[in-house]
Design goal:
With 79 residues, this protein is α+β, with helices and mostly antiparallel strands. It has helices spanning 7-15, 18-38, 40-43, and strands at residues 46-50, 65-69.
C-alpha cells in the first residue's frame, strides 16, 4: 500500500528553504516574462523551458527560454 505523503514535512525540509524559494521565484518570473511577450493564450497548456537549466548557470534571458508542450517533460503531471 502506498505511503501517505507528508506535505508539511516536505515543505519544511526542502521547499521552504531560502535557496529553493529563490529558484521557484526565478521559474515563476520566467513564465511571467513569456506571458508578457507572447500572451497567456499562447502559453495555455504549455511549459516554459530553460534551454540551459538554472541549476547549471542558466538565466531567465529571452535567449534561454522556450515554449514547449507538456509532453516534452520527462515526467508526467498526473495526466
Amino acid at each position: 500500500m502506498a505511503r501517505i505523503r507528508d506535505y508539511k514535512h516536505e515543505y519544511e525540509s526542502y521547499h521552504g528553504r531560502p535557496e529553493q524559494i529563490k529558484k521557484r521565484a526565478k521559474r515563476v518570473m520566467a513564465r511571467r516574462d513569456m506571458e508578457d511577450s507572447y500572451g497567456k493564450a499562447a502559453l495555455a497548456g504549455k511549459d516554459v523551458h530553460h534551454k540551459k537549466p538554472l541549476r547549471n548557470g542558466g538565466s531567465n534571458g529571452k535567449g534561454n527560454l522556450a515554449i514547449t508542450s507538456r509532453s516534452h517533460r520527462g515526467w508526467n503531471r498526473g495526466k
